[in-house]
Fold this sequence. Notes:
Largest sheet: 7 strands, mixed
CATH topology: Rossmann fold
Order of helices and strands: EEHEHEHEHHHHHEHEHH
CATH class: Alpha Beta
Structural class: alpha/beta
Strand content: 15-25%
Distance between the termini: 31 Å
Number of strands: 7
CATH architecture: 3-Layer(aba) Sandwich
Number of domains: 1
Shape: globular
Oligomer: single chain
Amino acid sequence: MFAHEAGSGTPVVLLHGFGLDHRSLLPLESAFERSGRWRRIYLDLPGATGTPVGAVSSSQEVADAVVEEVRARVGEQPFAVLGNSFGGMIARYVAHELRPQVLGLATVAGVFVAAHGGRTVPPRTVLRREPQVVPVLGAALEQYREDAVVESVESARAFLQYVLPGLEGADQRALDRISESYSLDREPEDAHPEPFSQPTLHITGRQDDVVGFSDSWSRIGHYPRASFISLDGAGHSVLLEQSELCSVLVFDWLGRIRQEFAG
């Protein structure tokens, strides 16, 4: 798999959403830079811009491939893992499969129920339209507005920089094949039912009509060291719409890991 790496120190693996690539998580760089001493490993999942899909044809095969990639890149080192949307589902799998060496887990608008029809989501809501985004986005306006809840010129520019390149670079035929087997064989929390006691963070958007927010809360008993945060004024693009808050929360999560595993 292709990986964009930055920094040095304790490894943290970052996994992007379905149909995107590693660049969609780069808005979190400021949190890692402020925290310091983190080797960021941003993977392109199979079918994303930098990683050919090969023989991978299901989410389970994506998850297994990521586990092998993490083992190859970090060996026996302790590491943390963060995932966005589909990447959140994969991150949960990695964290549970490799639990003895996992320092912490974070999800941002993470998938907790794979089947779309089984998710509990709020109705589609747009809290603010911003006419000034139209000339900024041009032909990408419709793609931006698929998930936008609070429009702003700032989030529109971030969309063009961090999200659109992955959308345009994705292997759509490969993603269609994977989406036909979108669920994991077993949910990580069910396959490994003992509570996950490492520092954890689950960020959701209160207006997220793609994965919702309440499905993550249904797992609250499994994560005794977790912060569960549902941010108002944000949908599935919570990382763009509430970028400063997301950075603060990730910074706090990194600090909790440092405190737990000092030295």
